[in-house]
From TrEMBL:
Its cofactor is pyridoxal 5'-phosphate; Mg(2+); Mn(2+); Ca(2+). It comes from the Bacteria. Residues 19-307 form the Tryptophan synthase beta chain-like PALP domain. GO terms for biological process: D-serine biosynthetic process. Belongs to the serine/threonine dehydratase family. This is Pyridoxal-phosphate dependent enzyme. It comes from Litoribacter ruber.
Amino acid sequence: MPTFSLPSLENIREAHTAIQPFIHRTPVMSSSAINIMAGCSIFFKCENLQKVGAFKARGAANAVRKLSDSQKLKGVATHSSGNHAAALARAAQVAGIPAYIVMPKTAPEIKKAAVASYGGEIIECEPTQQAREEMLGKVVEKTGATFIHPYDFMDVIEGQATAALELIEDVEGLDVIITPVGGGGLLAGTLLTAGYMNPSLEVYAGEPQGADDAFRSLQTGERQPSLKPNTIADGLLTSLGEINFAIIQGRIKEIITVSDEEIKAAMKLILERMKIVIEPSSAVPLAAILKEKETFAGKNVGVILTGGNVDLGI
């Protein structure tokens, strides 16, 4: 069990104020057609419209602002399949410091292009967790850069917690919030914010069946590795973080797993009914709601649409 101090609600509010110049307060949208299909009232927090196209802008901005002057001189480094990579590259660019980004060769080209556009130096690796970590170690040893973990780092979790802060402030009477879960930074931050602001608010997560390590971790009570994940939701391929698991245990209501076909259907539904573009990972919570309608029936449900960086192939 890792040793750490949880950020307070005051800490989360302070982080929210500090990162305001670097993020959007994203809108909350709804669709009467989707509500009828789902049998509940859904409020979509549109982080697909966030800076860099994903909620990751929040955690990266918060982590970079907390660096010491000596750390800033040598820059930052991370490993990421995309959205955290772009978010950290942009946060580093704004701060005027270098960013070294280890990305799997299989990462979507649109996400590689985003990192490059923000001045991040991309170092490619094989698409496994071990390869990411080994390459990152070499980069940090060579550059002296500070490793900003994509999700298993309290400054990042604190930043991600600000998305739920805005959602709860903007929508009165929420009964449920549901997020996707990959590494767990957003879910952990959401659980903290919800627990502070409304302890009766239930928090769920959706997870792909082909990358269900968080689900298995809760079932067994021990963190399970994501060894060979296989899902269209490329943003959810990473293993659940150690800190994140410790926060999630005992706080989350349930993790609901969904198939890639269910994810595609939810993604298509949002595009058709709401006319907004989301990436597959963002569709996972809606897929979970549609799969388990009785769980959410008649409730006010907040959904965090985590990102919109998808290669449309057109």
